[in-house]
Structures are given as structure tokens and as C-alpha cells.
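Hey, I was hoping to borrow your eyes for a little while. No rush at all, and the record is pasted right below:
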Amino acid sequence: MKKLTIVCLLVLAALINKVDMLYGQPPLPNQDEQLASQYFQNKEFDKAVVYYEKLFNKKPNSFYYNYYLNCLLEVKDYKKAEKVVKRQIKQYPIELSYHVDLGNIYKTSGDATKAKEEFTYAVKQLSPNQEQIFNLAKAFVSIKELDFAIATYLRGRRVMAGDYPFSFELAEVYLQKGDLVAMTNEYLDVLLISDSYIQAVQNALQTSFGNSANTKRNEILKNELLKRVQKNEKTIYSELLIWMFIQQKEFDTAFTYAKALDNRKKEDGSRIISLAQIAVANESYEVAINCYNYLINKGSSNYYFVTSKMELLNVTYKRIIEHHNYTQADLSELEKKYLATIAELGKNENTVPLLKGLAHLQAFYLHKTDEAIQNLEEAIGVPKLSQTIQAQCKLELGDILLMTGDVWEASLKYSQVEKTFKNDPIGQDAKFRNAKVAYYTGDFKWAQAQLDVLKAATSKLIANDAMDLSLFISDNTVIDTSAIPLRIFARADLLSFQNKDDQAMVTLDSITTLFPDHALGDDILYKKSKIMISRGNFEEAAKYLKKIIDTYPDDILADDALFQLAELNENKFNDKEKAKELYQQLLLKYPGSLYTVEARKRFRKLRGDLVN
């Protein structure tokens, strides 16, 4: 057994040595290896070459070869380098990258003619061997001979006779060379072979968009695509063009081409519905409205007719409310559209979301709470309605009851949902709303008990909101045992929820009057800024935020205020320089803020770091 074990170990050692020889794996470091590596790293090539020559002669694998050759080139011993490479060529004639090494020796020593001859010879010797072609091209790229790398892939394409096009590899070399037109056309040409390459092409082009947007590359891509769309029957180029416009957030142009392609291919509208959803996610509501109207005009037999009817109302609602520039007439017109659509589609389990949306509009913006409650009660009673949708309607009903001041009935609705969906996110949402009811009514102890449970909620958003409110309550009850200022603040919070903004502002002012130096000072300003933003009064909101930054720089809301003010300057005031300055200020003053990552990203984008 001992003899057998020794034999096995010897065989294993021989195999490991053989693998090292074939694949160039570095051997276990010995003294010579360590000295060679140390001298090489210190750029003492005259010393390193001695050890690498010794190591290479002992074990002529590719690992030692590469270091040895580099040392010879660094010490300008071109004759010995040429001799070493020629020996490799003789021993491994199929490995054409050694000819690149030889040509590089001639190139480095100043003999450009011999270098070109050697490079050209290597390209001409290519066989239909994909690995050989890759290795040769990579060898050319490594010494910055990009034209020969291109020639390698082009000849490889010919000798492979259509088996593999090398398009992606060529595109990468063209990019390194700076030939963006050739790069783009390589990506586009591969789609002539098969539409199945579309995802790979999109992945390759993805780096040109978003925060890394490259205007020049995108313009070339658009021009080349437009040429192909006009002269090529393949619709894949139209699809790629639409994708490109979506990446650039040019949704209106994307809609023009998507509509044309939908008509050309006689599609059912799935492309348009997808574009509409993307447009909504990017707050491009006008484009989304055009998409849904297009689908509605296809007629009631279209698969997306009902969906488009319903989503059109949702988008119109978002456009009106989120832009903060609506009139009472806009709201009344939207209500009419809701009523007309519900009358057309009927009241059933599919249209309950419309009834819910109508109720919210009526209660919170048109002050028609009786109609809103009636619509929700009718929605809750619709036959075959899923429990989840029913629960959503109950939560909405609870909110409206809370808005009307019927606090206990609102709490009852929330409790019903919480009981039915005890461990689900919607049940946790109901529990959070119930905790807020207790907060609004000044029962802080009970509210905090519920919030502490919700800190472990499966929904991260609810868990974070619960933690924030719990911390807010504890901070302001420990400091002030009477909790009177907090009760007044909670009342103002409820008034704000009920859309009674003027009363909320007066209530907040009363805290400042009665308790001028209370710790709620920054919270009052922050709440006022949120009320102003909800009313579309961004200038006034900015004043409150700036006051927090100036007066309470060390309090918990300072970084929140700074980030919100930066956002207002970036998105509402269009003052990019001021926004950039504020983001930078946040990064410097509050490095531990939760907003740090997003602020850094926006600062870099505004500074143009990633724009080529």
C-alpha cells in the first residue's frame, strides 16, 4: 500500500507539472520565482531577466515565457528575444500569436517593415479555428495593433464561412480605434444574420444611454438605424430604433415609430401598451395618453380596449394631480370621464379600480365625500370581487371616513383589513394606518406599541415609515412629558391629510407662538414645505427648506431639507448649478446621510462626469 501510494503521488505530481507546462499555470513560488517577481515589480528588469531566463529554461511554459520576453524587451536585448520567440514558433507552429510577439520585437527595435511582414504572415496563416482567430486578434490588441486585429477578425469571418461572424469582437476593436460608425454597423449587421441577436445587441449598446449617455454615439446609431429602416424590409431595425428612443426618454418619437410598426405588422397593440406603461413610469403622461387613445380607437374588439379605457383615466388623473397646476374645471371634467367610462363598461369586478379612483377624486379634490363613500360601498359589494381588491377599497373608505372626521369608523375599516390579511403587506399597511389614527388623536402610547411591531414588517417601506413615526413620537414625548405641542402637531398632520391646508398651517403656527423654542421647530418647517409642495407652491416650499438648513443644521431633518431643496432646484426651478452646489454640500456636511448615494449620483451627472 505504501509503494502504491508513492507511485500515485508521483503520477499526480507529473500530471500537475504537465498541466503547468500546457496551460501556463504559475508553479509554486520558490526563491528564484520570488526574486524574479520582486525585481519585475520594482522595474529592475536587468536583474529580473536573469531569474526568468533560468526559470524559463527549466520550465518553458507560457507563464515564464511572457515575463521573460517582457524583460528582454525592457532591457533591449532584441537578438535574444528574437531567438526565444523563434524557438517557440518552431515548437508550436499552430500558435500564431508567437508571430505577433516576433513582429512586436521588430517593431520595438525600429524595423517597421519586418514587423508588418510578420503581422501580415500571421493573418494569412489563419485556419477555420475559432480559438486560433480569437488568440491572434487578442495578441494584436495587446500591442495596440488594432488594424491587424480587425484584419484578423475579417479574415476569420471569411475562413469560418459563416459559422461565426465575429461582429461583437470587431465592434469592440472599432470602439477602441474610435471608429464609431464601423462599430455601430457591426452591431447592426449581426441582425441581418438573425433577429435572435437583438438582446445581445441591446446589451452591447446599453452603455451609451442613461447616466453614461454618449451623444455622438447615439447620433450615429440613430442615423444608421434610420438608413436601414428606410431601405430594409427587416422590422428588427424599427424595433431597435424604438428601443433606442425609449433609452433616450424620447417617448413621443418612440410612439411615432411604434405606431407605424404596429400598423405595418398588424399587431394587437402589445407594443403600444408596453410603451404606455414605460411612459407613465417616467411621468411622460402625454405620450401615455396618446398611446391609450390610439388603442381605444382600434375599437372595442381590440384586446387592450378595456385596459386602455381604464388606464387612460388613471394617467389623466396623475397628469392633473402631480403637476399641481389643475383647476376646478379640470377636476370636474375628469369626474365626468370617470362616470362616462363606468357607465360604458358597467360596474363589475374589472371596473372596481375605476370606482375606487373616482371615489378618491371626489373625496379629496371635489369635496363630494357622500358620493365617494357611496361609490366605495358599492364597489366593496360587487360580486366575485377578489379579497385583495375589496381590502384596497376598504382602506380607501377608511381614509375618506378619516377625512370626514369619523375617526372610529375609519379605524374599524382598517381593523377589518388587518384581521383578514394579518401577515400580508396589505394587512401591515392597515395596521400602520390604524397606528396613525392613534397618533392623530393623541394616543401616542398605543400608536407607538403598534409601530414597534411594524418595524419588522415585510414591506420595507412600511417598516421604515413605522420606524420614523415611532422615533418622532418618542423624541417629542421624552423631551416634553406634557406632549401638548406634539398633540397640536398631530392635529395639523391630520388637517393636512384631510386637504385642509390653510387650517393645518394655522395650527402649525400656533405651536411656534405658544412654544417658540420647542424641539419641533424643524419638523414644523418641514411639514410646511411639504404642504406647499402639494399645492405646487415650490418657491414658498424652498424658503421653509432653506430656513431648516440655516437654523437647524445639526438636527435630524437638515439633510432631508438639503436634498429636497436640491431636487426643487434641479427639477422645478431648472437651476442645475444651484442643484449641483446643494448636492455637493450634502455630501460634504452629511456623509452618513441616507441620501448620500443618490446625491453623489446626481451631483456627478450634473457635473457631467459620465457624459462623453
Notes: The two ends are 69 Å apart (CA to CA). The chain is about 75% helix and 0% strand. Confidence is low (pLDDT under 50) at residues 1-25.
